[in-house]
Amino acid sequence: MGKLSIVATPIGNLEDITLRALRTLKECDGIYAEDTRVISKLLAWYEIKKPLQRLDSATEIKKADEIITRLEAGEYVVLVSDAGTPCISDPGARLVAQVREKLPDVEIEAVPGPSALTATLSIAGLNVTEFTFLGFLPHKKGRQTALKKIAVSEIPIVLYESPHRILKLLKELEDLHISRIIIARELTKIHEETVSGTPTEVLTHFAMHTESIRGEFVVIVKP
Ligand code: SAM
């Protein structure tokens, strides 16, 4: 029986990768990546050459069958996403579930490392004994329900958001009369920035610094 490794990769800064992740990428038989072009840059940086295949949310189920066959044949297969930890708002969970179900004896190992979730929590200055991670809010159906959940939460809520929707989200949080939020943008990258305040204050910041409405965002809503 082979082995499936779920390997965390950097969320920006290419130096944020563990020695074990590098060894795993070097030793495996093949890598499945959300976007092979993205992971190729990381592999080229570390001079790792491996057969690469795409596994994104559209191809995950189909590729799971192929990976199961490879694991049965004794291969060592790695899954990575574009950034951070696979399966955290990224493809991979359905693959892992399939492998668990169909090959219960196969080892599935985590090679932990960066995640925008834990990176943001680590600099938020909150006593994070408990929190709710909602990831990306649904765009339409279920969004209002999620927002209502946020409004009454007694513990911090962590959200992922894209630059296209960050202003919409901030306005919604303003309407909910949320008292304080923390936003981490472009963590580990050149334009890394953390902004905190009321949603209105953060909206004012973005109105004054429109160049800041770019990149990737994590939003923490304080209870
Ligand atoms: N699996 C990833 C992880 O472990 O963090 C998350 C993947 S999810 C598709 C991408 C979202 O993660 C972005 O829209 C943003 O909300 C967040 N994110 C990823 N990299 C980030 C960074 N460098 N700074 C801030 N947020 C980031």
From TrEMBL:
Q: SUPFAM superfamilies per the record?
A: Tetrapyrrole methylase
Where does the UniProt entry say this protein principally localizes? cytoplasm
Provide this UniProt record's keywords sorted from A to Z. Answer: Cytoplasm, Methyltransferase, rRNA processing, S-adenosyl-L-methionine, Transferase
Annotated GO MF terms? rRNA (cytosine-2'-O-)-methyltransferase activity
Q: What is its EC number?
A: 2.1.1.198
Keyword Secreted included in the entry's annotation: no
Q: Which reaction does it catalyse?
A: cytidine(1402) in 16S rRNA + S-adenosyl-L-methionine = 2'-O-methylcytidine(1402) in 16S rRNA + S-adenosyl-L-homocysteine + H(+)
Domain of life, per the record?
Answer: Bacteria
| Compartments it resides in | Cytoplasm
Recorded family membership: Belongs to the methyltransferase superfamily. RsmI family.
Q: What does this protein do?
A: Catalyzes the 2'-O-methylation of the ribose of cytidine 1402 (C1402) in 16S rRNA.
Q: What is this protein called?
A: Ribosomal RNA small subunit methyltransferase I
Question: What is the gene called?
Answer: rsmI
